[in-house]
Amino acid sequence: MLTEAAAGSVDDINAAVETAHRAFGSFRSSLPKDRERILCKAAELLERDRVEFIDILVDEIGSPIRKAAFEVEKGLSFLRAAAGMTRQVTGKTIPSDVPGKFSMSIRSPIGVVAAITPFNVPLIKGVRLSCNPIALGNTVVMLPSEAAPILAHRLARLYSEAGLPEGVFNVVTGNGYEIGDTLTTHPHVRMVTFTGSCRVGQHIRELCGKHGKRLTLELGGKSPLVVMEDANLQQAIAGAVQSIFMYQGQVCMGASRVYVHENVFDEFVAKFAGAASGLGIGDLRDPGTIIGPIISNRQRNRARSHIEAAREKGANIVTGGDWIDNRCRPTVLTGVTPDMTVFAEETFGPVVSVYPIARLEDAIAASNDSNFGLSAAIYTQDISAAMQYVMNVESGMVHVNGGSLHDEPHVPFGGTKDSGFGREGTEEDIEAMTEWKWVTIQMQ
Ligand code: NAD
Description:
Layout: H1 10-27, H2 32-48, H3 50-61, H4 65-85, E1 92-94, E2 101-109, E3 112-116, H5 122-135, E4 139-143, H6 149-161, E5 169-171, H7 176-184, E6 189-195, H8 198-211, E7 214-218, E8 224-227, H9 233-245, E9 257-261, H10 265-277, H11 297-312, E10 316-319, E11 323-324, E12 327-328, E13 331-334, H12 341-344, E14 351-357, H13 360-368, E15 375-379, H14 383-392, E16 397-400, E17 420-421, H15 426-432, E18 434-442
Parallel strand pairs: 3-4, 3-6, 4-5, 6-7, 8-9, 8-15, 9-14, 13-14, 15-16
Antiparallel strand pairs: 1-2, 2-18, 7-17, 10-13, 11-12
The structure holds nicotinamide-adenine-dinucleotide.
């Protein structure tokens, strides 16, 4: 056994929210330079303890070491960008219709933010969903995935060593389905920022609507990646491999639907399947390993059932489809039809369907034939085709000649349709996690 973590109770959630609410009383008026110093220090400590964090990610959630190192890099960039946010909380002066009246609006932090994180990127999301609210003077109660309690505790110690005042960042470990509703509906919680499955996200959306909470949701995906006839095939194959197989496909932005122009379809499929079957499935600490274990029985059953249903209904398994213990070999399917679960549902494993398309319009229509809309990608040398795709694809994010898996702290990150609600990002979070106060001064 790796660890034992407390199964937090409803009382623990209430105590954590009360603590965060009390801490907000003074933290709300902390100075930008102090929050900036704490966040810079947190980045310095994450850099210092990089190896320890990587070890936790490898041991706790089965991250291959390269994915774990990627999480640390991203965590550093989020902390540093958040330090910069502390000085960007500006207001406005507004011309008034009343003679002698000076009118302005100023931003205030909102209070306690509930940050709920998924198992697959616990450091990236643990940092991101906490450092931005903290940068703005809010306090946080974090409910991490029950699969990643060690990382969450370690993050709390990091903030504490960085000098964050007591009560500003709080973690309650436990089962979200038992204690989550208490957190998201607590009267002192002003906002919920959630990353996880569509199912839980939809439930939280309903509660937040009913209880009047601000909300951002970052949910699942079934991202399309299009390869046109004029694409640089080598680049497109590398992009597709990285987009679907990183962390054994347990990535929200994973390009699990690939649409390839019919004239290069056979060549693409052969080379793509060749690259997929060559991915390392060894020791997680070997930098050559890309494919690690699938997190839980439940997730393994889902991936298995998607592959088996596709097999039974006549899909062609070009490579993979089998398992080594709890690891699913990279699986490339062709001939997938709408009656197969893998056609429309998120598998959250290393499974990708490749479809031929004849025209750009077909690629756009196929990309949009989904309830999801998180990320999308197109490979082409034709700028007009690229822009036509960009303008017409129903997706929160779209990348030209780059994979679907990409994130930076200062971009509007998020999805449309069932993939999300609201956006994350330095600018977006300033809007979401502060509130306006309109002020007038009548001059004599
Ligand atoms: P999940 O929905 O099972 O769990 C996410 C979190 O929700 C956990 O912390 C869990 O404890 C909590 N939770 C469960 N019930 C709750 C409730 N009633 N109230 C409040 N919280 C509750 O998701 P998961 O399996 O951990 O993560 C995988 C999913 O997350 C995938 O669908 C993936 O696409 C998505 N994801 C999205 C993004 C993004 O940025 N869009 C990033 C990473 C993962």
